[in-house]
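Human: Cast an eye over this sequence-structure pair and say how the chain folds.
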Amino acid sequence: MTLANEREHSLKEFRSGLKAPLPLALGVISFGMAYGMIAIQGDLSFLESTLMSIAVFAGASQFIAIGMLMSGAGALPILLTTFMINSRHFLMSASLAPFAQRWKLRWKVLLSFLLADETYALTISSFSKNAPSKYYQLGVGLNIYIIWVLSSMVGSALGPIAGNPQAWGLDFALPATFIVLVVPMLQNWRDFAVSFVAGLLSIAGFIFLPGKWYVTFASLLAAAFGWGLVEFCKAK
């Protein structure tokens, strides 16, 4: 492949990545606006709310951080809690790592920052069917990042007059979007079994475990269950 052809192919992959999240935009916008409204009502300024979205780019963690700030929590508890919530990113990154082995470090760092639930779902779905492309993942990640930042800015601007966004159910928009992404990826009975077990473990962890540990708890045990299921089927 000539240099010109390679650049054309990379640009095509990037454009494809930019387009892929568009059907999910409404969910991301709703969640971003909900965050912006809550941030303003939690006494953050418009600039502080926007900078958090730009620098952190983690919806659930930003919601939790705002709630903890409103309750008077210190920096260390907030950092530990958000780290715990985002620990699921270790599993998502591990899943994508085999596709990125030959990519340069600067690409891995950039794509790691842009990794979100929706980015992962779209990327892993594409990589399982097509040749892995860092430009595709970059397009997906940038699209969602830009939508998130802009929608949180709109929410922050509307915050003083909008009332409680949770009363409208906006905070559930992004989880609902992710569910819509995941379900079509379930291809066989093992996928459904692991998803079912993960759901049960999440509910049990939510009831019996403190804080947000149920996220990591369910993810790790469901992954172990899936591995055991595959090994059991191989042994038969």
